[in-house]
Design goal:
By secondary structure, the chain is an alpha+beta fold. A hairpin with a 2-residue loop joins strand 4 (107-111) and strand 5. The chain starts with a helix and ends with a helix.
Length: 574
């Protein structure tokens, strides 16, 4: 986000807060930051906001914008700030004041009658906030803690001009149409059952067919790229998770242990310790490295009920996980190959815009300085060699190693966090990993965590929305539907069905007692890539009349010609 847009959005949040202050009584304010999508502000007040309130607040914002009141910054002492906030009964702001380190400047910004504890930056006056629109209302716990009061959050957005706002709002409407939960009701891909538990996905036949296509492609390409497959259990001893550090640093996201034979077992939140134990099952030589081990491993993590969201935030999910154990000398080549593998995978699934985000060493970290420098340089070199746009987050890495995150843009320009390539200097130390070098001595390997798709559930949700449910032929749960016009063609249609199935084409035959128009509408609503219409003419000539999704009538072909055509289309994805 450019600096001027950030200023406009932050200023628009203040303008909204000023409007709320004018319209409602006894408003207590928390925070109102700019975001990638716009801005929001959190309020505590007796009035319960409803969608009909948004146009009222917007109208008041416009009136305040017309006044062009300047944003005036005032620096005051901590005592003066505390006294001012106490007098105004702004208890949330008093707590936020306590977050400001001693010695840092304490500033308030005023626009008209509204004054806010804020470090800025802002535009010059309220008339320069750009084109804005309020979007929605939601609940938000103070500081994100469910034990704290629930505040009312109002979301909005702001752009430099009306054109930018119109484009955004159009995409927002398109995003609603593409919501994977809405499309799911039309295509019957998955469900969540209250009788089983929230955040636990049931894959229906159509969804399972797509998942199977994804997994088959994933496995085939991994084997071609020198990986071996692993399968590991769903739970393990508590001591394993103690050694890995998860019980010290990650326990809140783990489920309570099971007592089996008087020992604690935990369902796994990650696959890493199991892969490490496979590595430790015998001594390893430098000649065996790199070891590239991949697993579609299902893990379980606790998510609060209020944040679960379709396929995007769940409690049980399958990671396309891999770990690479290599010598320091092999790290550069391994990182480069992994990054190229990521780009190949996203291209294969139809995503063309990819951006890298590099996170470097934080102040508190484990591992030697030279290892951090080497690992960071490996990541930088791989990004440069791939000619990827990259943003660097200095000090934003995990305590155990630097990383690259990849973000992709979907069909309507939204950015999604996906692949991660992460060095880990912590687990090799904790588990005392080693290999025997060419000098006959023990050496510690580099360990690289790597996920291409992230999780199958979240990736599937992204895929649904990217294609709006109209999956490319190679992924579509039903690639072909045969539509006989009358009962007289049923035998011929079933013969075609068997021929296509024999060639691994996912095909169905609609023999319902319905007219052809109704059958076509059903297939179109279900986004079937190809319809093969067969009547007496087609039966007599051993042919089919082809209708292609997005095109309509595509002519007549014999069945061998059609099979050759669809096979070529599926192959071209590679």
């Amino acid at each position: 986000m450019d600096e001027q847009l950030l200023r406009r959005r932050h200023s628009a949040a203040h303008l909204m807060a000023a409007a709320v202050q004018n319209l409602f009584d006894d408003v207590k304010f928390d925070i109102g930051p700019a975001t990638e999508e716009g801005f929001y502000y959190d309020f505590d007040m007796d009035h319960r906001l409803v969608p009909d309130d948004l146009p009222r607040i917007e109208e008041e914002m416009k009136k305040l914008a017309e006044k062009k009141d300047p944003f005036i910054c005032t620096e005051i002492s901590r005592n003066e700030a505390t006294e001012s906030l106490i007098n105004k009964h702004q208890n949330y702001k008093i707590e936020r004041l306590g977050d400001i380190p001693d010695g840092d400047k304490i500033t308030f910004y005023q626009c008209g009658e509204f004054i806010d504890l804020c470090r800025g930056p802002h535009v010059e006056h309220t008339g320069d906030v750009g084109a804005f629109k309020l979007i929605s209302i939601a609940g938000s716990y103070y500081r994100g803690n469910e034990n704290n009061p629930m505040l009312q959050r109002v979301y909005g957005t702001s752009f430099h001009n009306e054109k930018g706002l119109r484009v955004y709002l159009k995409n927002l409407e398109e995003a609603k149409k593409r919501d994977h939960r809405k499309i799911n009701t039309e295509l019957e891909l998955y469900s969540v059952s209250e009788d089983i538990g929230p955040g636990l996905i049931l894959w229906h036949p159509n969804g399972a067919r797509i998942r199977n296509a994804i997994e088959n492609f994933w496995r085939d390409t991994h084997y071609k790229n020198g990986y071996e497959m692993l399968y590991t259990p769903h739970l393990g001893f508590g001591e394993l998770w103690q050694t890995s550090g998860h019980l010290d640093f990650y326990k809140e996201a783990m489920y309570s242990p099971l007592q089996i034979d008087d020992r604690d077992y935990y369902v796994k939140p990650m696959n890493c310790p199991f892969h490490i134990k496979i590595y430790q099952s015998r001594n390893r030589s430098y000649k065996e490295l790199p070891a590239r081990w991949a697993e579609l491993g299902t893990v379980y993590r606790y998510e609060k009920s209020g944040v679960m969201h379709g396929l995007f935030r769940v409690r049980g999910f399958t990671q396309d996980d891999a770990h690479i154990f290599c010598t320091p000398e092999q790290a550069d080549a391994e990182i480069s190959e992994v990054l190229q593998f990521c780009l190949f995978m996203w291209k294969s699934f139809g995503f063309k815009e990819v951006k890298a985000y590099l996170s470097t060493r934080p102040k508190k970290a484990v591992g030697h300085d030279d290892k951090w420098e080497h690992a960071t340089n490996s990541l930088k070199k791989a990004v440069a060699d791939a000619n990827l746009e990259c943003e660097v987050d200095p000090g934003g890495g995990a305590f155990y190693g630097p990383k690259i995150d990849l973000k992709i843009k979907d069909a309507i320009g939204r950015e999604w966090q996906t692949s991660t390539i992460q060095f880990d200097f912590n687990l090799p130390e904790r588990f005392d990993l080693h290999y025997i070098g060419d000098d006959g001595k023990k050496h510690q390997p580099y360990m690289i965590h790597r996920a291409l798709l992230g999780s199958l559930e979240r990736f599937f949700g992204i895929l649904i929305e990217h294609y709006a449910g109209a999956f490319p032929t190679w992924l579509a749960p039903v690639q072909v539907r045969i539509l006989p016009i009358t009962d007289a063609q049923h035998d011929y249609a079933n013969d075609l069905l068997n021929q296509l199935r024999a060639d691994d084409i996912r095909v169905e035959c609609d023999t319902r007692n319905e007219g052809l128009g109704a059958k076509i509408r059903k297939a179109r609503n279900e986004r079937i890539p190809y319809m093969l219409i067969v009547g007496e003419k087609e039966k007599k000539n051993n042919a089919v009349s082809v209708r292609k999704r997005g095109v309509g009538e595509a002519g007549t072909a014999n069945i061998d010609e059609f099979k050759s055509q669809i096979k070529q289309e599926i192959k071209e994805k590679e």
